Queue: 2 jobs
Job 1
Amino acid sequence: MKFLLPTVAAALTLVALPTLVHAEEAQALSVNLGAVSDYRYRGISQTRLKPALQGGADYALGRGFYVGTWLSTIRWIRDWGTDSGVDTGRANLEWDLYAGHKGELGPGLSYDVGVLAYLYPGNHYGRLPGAANANTTELDGALSFGVATLKYSHAVTHLFGTDKSKNSGYLEAAASFDLGSGFSVTPHIGHQLVAHNGNYSSTDYSLTAAKDFNGLVLSVALVGADTKSIAGAKAYASPVDANKDLGKFGVVLGLKKTF
């Protein structure tokens, strides 16, 4: 938690530099800050079902190219270290860096391709038996037609600390329905396959309703994941509380302000 504000400030400064040079393109920079009652990623809680602070920035470079950064508080790396008695580092933060290109392929059809690095400053997750460093890089590509989007992400490193998991893949589908007056509904489903680890897989799902109050977005999401893929056992029980299923069905509240 204590690393969040200085890291956000540093990240936003880096992203904002082009704007300082080209003031006439200031509208290309978008900054967001917010909080959620539980940070779920691919259906799995990253915060032991507890709240998280989040923030990020996006910068449009022109001609379809973009860069961005996003940050969130997390708990899972320290939790696994606490359970095993191994010092996995004071990694309380996820810091994402990404870049890509998007454009039109035809009437109503668009694409978005890019690279995304998930960084966990100070993590020593690889000290755990059979684990690897938690830092992860994925290449991704998406096709959108109308309200629907199909996206595939491919890991070119170990996947979130899982040893020998390079070439893991995540396929997801979503749709965004604008109901008017700032209201929207977004259904989502995704499937994660972890390579070279007994063909472990997990399917997650969510349904999010949101209301935009002139840049301040309030959201309510129903979210969960099927984590019973390993011999019928819960694959994502909390390492510090075996009674907590980190992929269980739940309600996540969110509040985000975009500037």
Job 2
Amino acid sequence: MMNRFRITPSVIPNLFTTMNMFCGFLSIINTAEGKFNYAAWLIIVAALFDALDGAMARLTKSSSELGIELDSLSDIISFGAAPAFLIYSTFFFQFEIWGLIISSLLMIAGAFRLARFNITQIGFVKTHFTGLPIPVSAITLAAFILTYYVDNIGFKEPYSEFIFPMVLVISFLMVSRIKYDTIPSFTLRGLKEKPFHFIFILISAVILLITGGKALFFIFVFVVLFGIFRHILNLFKRK
């Protein structure tokens, strides 16, 4: 009887995945209640739990197919449905059916990206992502809202003009074939394999501390654009 309830190491990363899912649910609740800044912050907190579940899986050596599926289900809530509902509630609601369709692209494109990842993933070690990772998409959007949305007023001008192209571009990038780097493992081996990634993370952390977190949106814009520019550069090299 005791063996049936044996706690395995996989419980630890799955707990972080569950917290990711819970934060996504709370974000949706806060958006429905009009607490848009709280909703945006909860998406970012969900992303932290998403990063930690992978780290815990590697640390405990408990990566599993169940964990991958659970992670994807959590991601579609926290980084697909939650940001789509948030941007609809803060901006696209005024465009009625078209606003509903455009905001839903974040969720739909994210779902396709996760489904493609699940059927193409070989093993548990990722060297890169094909298409913009859905957490990056969600954090970019959440950071934009935290930076440019004002309660009871709306988005500052002229920044509201960037919302349409931003949502369309982010949605396209998620289902594209553009490669994006994975977060390096914080080990000596990871440092040797990806030294520039560690330098970028360190510089980003310093900038966030100096600006009180206000630079978060610009850091993630740089990440998004870097993948695009590198893809274009590689196309020219092939030619």
